[in-house]
Write a structure and sequence with these properties.
With 618 residues, this protein is of the alpha/beta class. It contains 22 helices and 29 strands. It folds into three domains: 238 residues, ANL, N-terminal domain (Rossmann fold, 3-Layer(aba) Sandwich); 137 residues, Rossmann fold (3-Layer(aba) Sandwich), CATH 3.40.50.980; 145 residues, 2-Layer Sandwich (GMP Synthetase, Chain A, domain 3), CATH 3.30.300.30. The strands form seven sheets. Strands 1-2-20-21-22-23-19-18-17 form a nine-stranded antiparallel sheet.
């Protein structure tokens, strides 16, 4: 494909490298971090004055036929009324706000009101209330927070969770409340009533007291390595990180961004990066009620037929489904690409075939390749710490540090473990001194747990490849190290599109194996059957499916370079990952340790002298 790349004002800076006597090195951007806002609501006030009639936030009406919108000027008025309501509730860092429901206009306004008044809030994964049956993670988080107020859109679906885990002195704020709440054991206020709270001078005084050290929100990690941890997000962290992002995606300062976005706000990608990008730069966010799953993509398609984003964010699985829809819906694709400057992904590696399809589609509809970009970060880094350049962008590349973030690379098990320091790094975990102490090294660098590899050691400004997670790597019984992250990404790529996720096993064993969570839709297509006619167990045990996995296993083995990259067997999992057993995070990613522990019988079967027929081996 010889088409030119779409010209977009995206800037990455050269880096300097400081070699140290202990074999570690410090990597710094040569760019300077611009001055950043003191608090996020300063930007709300700025745009309410500069562009009062611009849509800040929009969501579909209940009938899905229209968009309900709130402008910057309207948002500021509502935020002040809500701030007064919150101040009247005697809330504080010791009694913060918990938001249980998902993305909505009310959610955003309440979050901004909390920040305006200087009261921390914590958006929590809806899965912990609506999918979990024992409310274990929600109870753990609630005990950690001791909330004074909980917000939900509709009381009905969340009532069991509230009854089960919320403290008795916690008030409830709801957009809708089902009939028959006379026996509800909590003080209940409707959102519409909170919006009519008369504003006093107390609101202005509270806002004036907010500074860079004020806690804006508490974001909980997904729990991929244990129970979720509450990451303290200060105003300084969030504002500085938005200025870092703006120094990279400079086109958002020239043209306020338009987003049509589904990413959940309890995660830093959607809740900090994307909503922050809009508010900080005077843009507009259209809430996409769809989801990157076969049954949820239809609403995304409907939205993208109407809204032309200037930048589009998604996870790799979402892009895989989106590509299919773009190919089948030319009218949608025409709108989607009409104003698009950049495609951005995060959360995992983007498969090469999806990458190629996106470029091909962008050339078809724009005549040029729309840049596909990514980076590296974490909830603890607000989130962005590194970004790829347009020139070096490729699957597996994570780029260079942004201005204001310093990398420390430390030799570890033959890799370069990356640690970070800067104004956008968290001060610690909420009410967890032990985990906070473990998170930082003796020089105050936050330990990401990831490893990096130079694209070109002679030209460090070209950036870095992601080289897996150091904490996941293990040794075979021969003493050979296995790079789990790299191998996992390779396997998902080789077996595409039939793998949803995989857990690599083999610690202290003689060879590597894998517990494979199949992509049910693509596996079902191998059998050519209608949805629902076979169970998951029948699908994974079907001869056609097993043969495809066996063939791919053999093909991958032929390309391996030795025992550290050769997967000798796999077992297709007929039981989905269980969120209550901590096998799956709310993001849908796997907690490998929990999966291996809970499925120890399968692992033992793999390594037994006579494995059962469920084990597919070379």
């Amino acid at each position: 494909m010889n088409a030119e790349v779409l010209p977009v004002n995206v800037v990455t800076y050269d880096v300097s490298v400081e070699q140290r006597g202990d074999a570690s090195m410090l990597i710094r951007s040569t760019g300077e971090l611009p001055e950043y806002a003191a608090k996020m609501t300063d930007k709300l006030e700025y745009w309410a004055a500069e562009t009062p009639d611009t849509v800040l936030i929009a969501q579909r009406t209940e009938d899905k036929h229209h968009w309900e919108t709130v402008t910057y000027a309207e948002a500021l008025v509502k935020v002040k009324h809500l701030s007064q309501y919150l101040l009247n509730q005697n809330l504080s860092a010791e009694r913060p706000i918990v938001i249980l429901s998902g993305n909505s206009i009310s959610h955003l306004l309440l979050g901004l009101a909390a920040m305006y008044a200087g009261i921390p809030y914590a958006p929590i994964s809806t899965a912990y209330s609506l999918i979990s049956t024992d409310f274990g993670k929600l109870r753990y988080i609630t005990d950690k927070l001791t909330p004074g107020l909980v917000f939900i859109e509709n009381l009905g679906p969340y009532r069991d969770a509230i009854d089960a885990v919320m403290p008795s002195d916690c008030s409830v704020l709801a957009t809708e409340a089902a009939h028959g709440v006379d026996d509800f054991g909590f003080d209940l206020t409707l959102f519409a009533d909170a919006l009519t709270t008369p504003v006093t001078d107390e609101v202005a005084h509270a806002n004036a007291a907010v500074d860079g050290d004020t806690i804006a929100k508490l974001l909980f990690t997904s729990g991929s390595t244990g129970m979720p941890k509450g990451v303290i997000n200060t105003q300084r962290m969030i504002c500085a990180n938005q200025e870092m992002i703006g120094s990279y995606l400079q086109f958002v300062k020239e043209q306020p961004p338009i987003l049509c976005d589904w990413l959940p706000w309890n995660h830093t990608f959607g809740g900090n990066k994307n909503t922050g990008l809009v508010i900080y730069n005077g843009g507009s966010l259209y809430i996409d009620g769809g989801k990157p799953v076969p049954r949820g993509i239809a609403e995304t398609v409907a939205n993208l037929r109407e809204i032309a984003p200037t930048i589009y964010f998604n996870v790799p699985k979402g892009y895989e489904l989106l590509v299919k829809e773009l190919k089948q819906n030319p009218d949608m694709a025409g709108v989607f690409f009409s104003n698009l400057q950049v495609l951005f992904y995060a959360g995992a590696g983007l498969a090469q075939h999806v990458w190629d399809d996106l470029l091909e589609l962008s050339v078809q509809y724009t005549g040029r390749k729309v840049p596909i970009l990514t980076g590296l970060g974490a909830t603890e880094t607000a989130p962005s710490a590194m970004f790829t350049s347009i020139e070096e962008s490729a699957s597996g590349v994570v780029g260079v540090p942004v201005p204001g973030v310093e990398l420390k690379l430390v030799p570890n098990q033959g890799k370069l473990e990356v640690r970070v320091k800067g104004v956008s790094i968290m001060p610690g975990y909420w009410r967890d001194e032990a985990q906070t102490a473990k998170a930082f090294d003796e020089e105050g660098y936050y330990c990401l747990g990831d490893a990096l590899k130079f694209i070109d050691e002679e030209k460090p400004s070209r950036g870095f490849y992601f080289d897996g997670r150091v904490s996941e790597d293990f040794k075979l019984d021969t003493g050979t190290w296995v790079s789990v992250g790299t191998l996992k990404a390779h396997m998902i790529h080789e077996f595409a599109p039939y793998i949803q996720d995989v857990v690599i096993v083999g610690r202290d064993r003689g060879f590597i194996s894998a517990l494979v969570f199949p992509d049910v839709e693509h596996c079902r297509n191998l059998i050519d059957i209608e949805e629902g006619s076979l169970s998951l167990e029948q699908i994974v045990n079907h001869e056609a499916v097993r043969q495809v996995f066996s063939d791919h296993l053999s093909s991958m083995a032929e390309k391996s370079t030795g025992s550290s990259t050769r997967i000798k067997s796999l077992v297709l999992q007929s039981r989905p990952a269980d969120i209550d057993a901590h096998e799956m995070t709310d993001k849908g990613s796997l907690n490998s340790n929990a999966v291996i522990a809970n499925r120890a019988d399968i692992v033992e079967d793999i390594y037994s002298a006579t494995p059962s027929s469920q084990v597919i081996s070379l």
